[in-house]
Amino acid sequence: MRMIKMLVGALAFAPLMAFAQVSLTTTAFHIVAVKQADGSVTEEWQKPENIVPGDLVGYRIHYVNSGKETATDVVVNNPVPDNTEYVVNSAAGMNSQITYSADQGKKFARAAELTVEENGAQRPAKASEITHIRWSINSVAAGSSGDVEFKVRVK
């Protein structure tokens, strides 16, 4: 009972404290190659309307700190969607350290260090074996926002 009173007492002061509050919004895009007037081809991230196997899909995760304090050690952990395959070197995010998992998010490592076990031995993980992507961001100032993103190919 004493612990409950302490928790209730602490929560009563919570609105008076300033907290970092980071929220995430994920948006999917259909990535299409568009030929430019000069003959070059650029990638455009468009609203997904009709996605079929073989298409590229981009995921952009927007984060914003709507709190009054800097958020530190922010982690964005995103699974690679079912029936897709991660596109090598497509994960990006300013001021973030990107790591990957090939075991449903249990262990993470940089791409060059990510391994899986096969026939009792460790070998480098293939893009098709990546199950999760994690962005670690040192800090997000109050009122600041940013984006992280990655691409997949639909199976």
TrEMBL record:
N-terminal signal peptide: 1-20
UniProt keyword list: Signal
Keyword Secreted: no
Span of domain DUF11: 48-135
Cross-referenced InterPro entries: DUF11_rpt, Ig-like_fold, OmcB-like_DUF11
Keyword Signal: yes
Protein name, UniProt field: DUF11 domain-containing protein
Species whose genome carries this gene: Parathalassolituus penaei
Lineage: Bacteria, Pseudomonadati, Pseudomonadota, Gammaproteobacteria, Oceanospirillales
